[in-house]
Specification:
Layout (H helix, E strand, L loop, with lengths): L1 H18 L1 H9 L3 E8 L2 E8 L2 H14 L6 E7 L7 H6 L4 E4 L6 H9 L5 H7 L15 E4 L3
Parallel strand pairs: 2-3
Antiparallel strand pairs: 1-2, 4-5
């Protein structure tokens, strides 16, 4: 019987990880050190330490963009200034973050997720004119620069 529970828990964990993939990506980009990522009380439980308050805020902004009620996620993120800021993320895009396009994405959907405002899709398009010729034509796997808020 424990096996069924374990597979249900693992399935729920994978489901929540998929839903919050952009949060986990932001955590990685911001250099947040994770201590725990698991299902607790049927919610995704994330615990870790961010190198700065700004990094912590970016993670929370991403959580709120996906689920403003955060009723299926618990994030316990502290600030530990002894953690080095991620030089790699800053070097790859000093203006903001990098977003990898997923199947079903549109620039307005990404803008809604990142900024909370779908109408800001042109900000993303304008920042990626070197890769995009039409705001309605993006492909899964493309890496787009997301300008800061």
């Amino acid at each position: 019987m424990a096996t069924g529970t374990t597979s249900n828990t693992e399935q729920r964990l994978q489901e929540l990880k998929n839903k919050y993939a952009s949060v986990l990506s932001t955590i990685q980009q911001q250099g947040v050190r994770l201590a725990h990522v698991h299902v607790q009380d049927d919610k995704l439980f994330i615990q870790g330490a961010a190198p700065s308050q700004d990094a912590k805020n970016r993670v929370w902004d991403q959580i709120k963009a996906i689920n403003p009620n955060y009723n299926d996620i618990t994030a316990d993120i502290t600030v530990d200034t002894s953690i080095p800021a991620p030089a790699q993320a800053q070097a790859s895009n000093p203006m903001g973050q990098i977003y990898e396009v997923k199947s079903g994405d549109s620039l307005s959907k990404i803008a809604k997720q990142v900024y909370g405002d779908a109408n800001r899709y042109m900000d993303i398009f304008n920042a990626n004119k070197d890769k995009l010729s039409d705001p309605n034509k993006i492909q899964p796997g493309q890496k787009l620069a997301i300008p800061p808020k």
